[in-house]
Amino acid sequence: MTRARAPAPVGFAMDSRLAGDTHPLASLPLCELRLMDDANYPWLVLVPRVAEARELIDLGPEQRRLLVEEIDLASRLLREVFRPHKLNVAALGNLVPQLHVHAIARFEDDPAWPAPVWGRVAARPYTPEALVERVARLRAALPE
């Protein structure tokens, strides 16, 4: 899959909470791939650059196909880099209605296991050094 970024459509803006809670990782053909600022878990967020998209059904057929491919890419990236016990993939959006998809690497010894990550333990922001290391490690494993 090419990592060339398509121009953002007119009217697209990333929700300020998503922007504030994540760090840029890569621009994929449809989505911004971002790292959640929670060092408790390897956690990626995909945000389709589609104006006003709140639900999967707001995407056109080609956009849905691309989103599935990009979720696959994010999931495989987490599996390759971190070797998790399980991958959690979800599109919730109760607090942030803009369409976004979470891909989270889970381990039997992570702070929330086996429960969902939401609301279990406080987020642990990355230190500047850990953030640089994590982003570099993930970017190095992305396909060209």
TrEMBL record:
Which Pfam families is this protein grouped with?
Answer: HIT (PF01230)
The record's listing under PROSITE patterns reads: HIT_2
For this entry, list what GO says about its biological process: methylation
Q: Which InterPro entries match?
A: HIT-like, HIT-like_sf, HIT_Hint
Annotated SUPFAM superfamilies: HIT-like
Q: Which residues cross the membrane?
A: none
EC number(s) reported in the record: 2.1.1.-
Q: Does the keyword Transferase apply?
A: yes
Q: List, for all copies, the residue spans of the domain called HIT.
A: 44-113
Q: Which UniProt keywords apply?
A: Methyltransferase, Transferase
The main enzyme category here is transferase
Q: Name one GO molecular function term.
A: methyltransferase activity
Keyword flag Methyltransferase: yes
What's the name of the protein? HIT family protein
Q: Which organism is it from?
A: Luteimonas endophytica
Q: What is the lineage of its organism?
A: Bacteria, Pseudomonadati, Pseudomonadota, Gammaproteobacteria, Lysobacterales
